Amino acid sequence: MTWFVTGAGGMLGTDLTARLDDVVAPGRGELDITDAAAVGEALRRHRPLVVVNCAAWTAVDDAETHEDEALAVNGTAVEAITAGCAEIGARLVHVSTDYVFDGTATAPYPEEAPTAPINAYGRTKLAGERAVLGYGRGYVVRTAWLYGAHGGNFVRTMARLAAERDTVDVVDDQAGQPTWSGDLADRIIALAGSGAPAGIYHGTNSGRTTWYGLAREVFALLGLDPARVRPTTSDRFVRPAARPASSVLGHARWAEAGLPPMRDWKEALQAAFTAITAPSGSPGGSPA
């Protein structure tokens, strides 16, 4: 089965393509996904059975002042990918985000919960979701707090700061689900081959924590004292884009696909930790 992966050079795309035998994975220089004609031509030429869109504008704060540019990647380009899939009859998996929610829920958001993004990034990602959901063979897989071995992320940042500082202040008033990109790649492959109904699926590791809780777990896995991580609040780290206070996602729809929810975030972090904290790659930004 031939796969076509956009955004293959990113954290998730790299893990995904490494797990596939028959895959077309054009780099950014080979395919501009905002060029609708080029997208259509590439899909007609390769005629994949499954297309996975991992490409996205992910600079959350920059999207506040460049919403049109972010929308071109996260919304308009997704419309072109969806149209190309419809033309050749390919199954589409589109990666989205917990930021389509406002973060005010006191329980995990079910897949069918009303969306209400509170920043430009969330609005642009929601536009992409709507394009995919209008296609009868499209999956929207929402993920959150993604970390992996390829590129910058919060886990790598905390490992670096552990070596540089005696203490680290990390926000304890934003709750979510740290998610290993390797686990998400495995789940995307399983979903695409499952014959599950089209629609929305939440691709996050199970459980919940805060950025503070995640940082403490990183220190513990490094063999360091977690007490070196100190809790603080979001108002200490003001950013251009508002963040959801709680974006924990529910996983009920996996039962329809005959697949269990993804494993607990602590178990996943422990399994991935050696590769994630390797010296290669650049540290990413964090709410710390």
TrEMBL record:
Molecular function terms from GO: dTDP-4-dehydrorhamnose reductase activity
InterPro entries, per database record: dTDP_dehydrorham_reduct, NAD(P)-bd_dom_sf, RmlD-like-bd
Listed SUPFAM superfamilies: NAD(P)-binding Rossmann-fold domains
The UniProt record lists the keyword Oxidoreductase: yes
Origin superkingdom: Bacteria
Keywords: NADP, Oxidoreductase
Pathway(s) where this gene product acts: Carbohydrate biosynthesis; dTDP-L-rhamnose biosynthesis
Top-level class of the enzyme under EC nomenclature: oxidoreductase
The EC number(s) this enzyme carries: 1.1.1.133
Ranges for domain RmlD-like substrate binding: 2-275
The protein's role, per its UniProt record: Catalyzes the reduction of dTDP-6-deoxy-L-lyxo-4-hexulose to yield dTDP-L-rhamnose.
Family: Belongs to the dTDP-4-dehydrorhamnose reductase family.
Protein name: dTDP-4-dehydrorhamnose reductase
Organism from which the protein derives: Actinomadura graeca
Lineage, opening ranks: Bacteria, Bacillati, Actinomycetota, Actinomycetes, Streptosporangiales
